[in-house]
Amino acid sequence: MVQDALKQLWRLAYPDRELPSLKSELWKEMGWQGSDPSTDFRGGGYVSLENLIFFAKFYLVMDLDGHIMELQRLVVKYCPLGYGTSSKGSEVLDAFQSLLHKRDGSRAEWEYPFAVAGINLSFMLVQMLDLQSGKPTTMAGIRFLEFLSEDEMAFDNLYCVAFRLMDAQWLAKRASYMEFNDVLKSTRTQLERELALEDVFSVRDLPAYNLLKR
């Protein structure tokens, strides 16, 4: 199951490259710790792989009126760099590829590994939302359940927002590898603050959701 999901993630991340064996040094390019990425999912980390696949499958399109629509990644082949225009003149932004290849901002010499960062983000969200308890009691967890009642993919959508927010925090702090945990904490703090806002009724209402438009 993990092996099949890893193959799917590779094909989504690198559509023009040959799929390597499941034990290959090439996996490190995506940000796994070693040549066998399946070892990174010990302790229930498989949810983070599902989150990464969701992120890779969807990208954002901003139409001329500024509205946001999620579309299947199928048409990315018409926009190989992740940016461009559709037949209707809409701007296409591939947030997953932008993060994977660290295209934004002035990057550190020692960057955070993309895939491992994704695992840490998934665990952070599970803890922040108190999802391991039978009934969340935190403000963030209670608000998230409200989101979930209207959007069954709310966790995946929040994950995409969190990843983009984390990278923005990373750049703003001019952080390096050893400061990743501090950036993760500040990302959690910002998400908790936004989840507590009175006028937030879905993931798309979060101020940080706007980062996915860039």
From TrEMBL:
<dbReference type="InterPro" id="IPR050868">
    <property type="entry name" value="ELMO_domain-containing"/>
</dbReference>
<feature type="domain" description="ELMO">
    <location>
        <begin position="1"/>
        <end position="195"/>
    </location>
</feature>
<dbReference type="InterPro" id="IPR006816">
    <property type="entry name" value="ELMO_dom"/>
</dbReference>
<dbReference type="Pfam" id="PF04727">
    <property type="entry name" value="ELMO_CED12"/>
</dbReference>
<protein>
    <submittedName>
        <fullName>ELMO/CED-12 family protein</fullName>
    </submittedName>
</protein>
